Amino acid sequence: MTENAVSHNSLATESLLFAGRLLKHWWREPVVLVQAVLFPTFLLITYNLLVGKSLMRITGADSLYGLVPTCAVAGALFGSLAAGLSIPFERDSGLLSQFWVLPVHRSSALTGRLLAEAGRTLVATALITAVGVGLGLRFDGNLLAIIPFLLVPVLVVAVFSMAVMAVTMRAKSGTALIWLGVPVIGAVFASSGAPPIALLPAWIRPLVQYQPMSPVIESMRALAEGTSATWPLLLSVVWAIVLAAVFGPLAVRGYRAAAESGS
Questions:
Q1: Distance between CA 229 and CA 224 in Å, rounded?
Q2: Can you tell me the distance from the alpha carbon of 232 to that of 248, in angstroms, rounded to the nearest whole number?
Q3: In this structure, is residue 25 part of a structural domain?
């Protein structure tokens, strides 16, 4: 019976079921919505009102083209951290062990979580971008550039979610996410999102330019401005592949260990 059940359901179908379960859970969990949408939107509006005009006078460019990508990526990461808080509870309550013994593909729960994170990020990025457009953001090149613009944070959160799972599957509590979240969120706001790299001291420019979050922000900025985004997009993909190769196996092993623990 188990073999027949597995054969009649594809990995994609089962992953979508797990993703739907998580999305429904997050919809009822205010902290995820606040961290993923409300907080970064508030941050975007506040930052634009306080320093937007000052940055335009200093740089000669509209700061929204950097602020919207920065807040969109930050919202994706904040949302992933908030969603990751439930993983230790699922492990300790035995829910992961129950998933493990179900007649489904073993990887469907993990891929379902990644799909849910991607869906949540896509919707949140679209909402933050809509607010940015209301504040004055325009896609000066091809309007179709908005599609990769919305998908770049999805790429970021897919990799970051692996790191979140790798940490929380083995951590005793969700507080371990602080050690992961602080440097990553710090990297977002220490990127080229607000001050252009050319205005930074020469000694720190290479560190800012080539850290993982800068090419992500720069690719989104270029897509909105209508300039070439090839190089920053390529660098973003390279960083994503490298980090996924590190955290992907750790997430899989952590999930297996947590599920087999039978808590």
A1: 10
A2: 23
A3: yes
Q: List pLDDT tens digits, range 103-158.
A: 888 889 899 999 999 999 999 999 999 999 999 888 987 888 999 999 999 999 99
C-beta separation of 189 from 70 below 8 A: yes
DSSP tally for the chain: helices H, then strands E? 13, 0
* Regions of the chain short of the pLDDT cut 50: 1-7
Q: Is the dihedral angle over the CA atoms 235, 129, 64, 195 positive or is it negative?
A: negative
Calpha distance 115→49 (Å, rounded): 35
pTM of the model: 0.88
Rounded CA gap, 204 and 247, in Å?
Answer: 27
Q: How many CB atoms lie within 10 A of CB 251?
A: 22
> pLDDT value at position 187?
84
Question: Where is 88: in which H helix or E strand?
Answer: helix 87-92
Q: How far apart are CA 223 and CA 229, in angstroms?
A: 6
Domain limits for position 178: 2-192+205-260
Helix (H, G, I), strand (E, B) or coil at 31: helix
Upper half-sphere CA count for residue 169 (Cβ side, 13 Å): 24
> In a 3-state reduction of DSSP, which class is residue 195?
coil
**Number of domains forming the structure of the chain:** 1
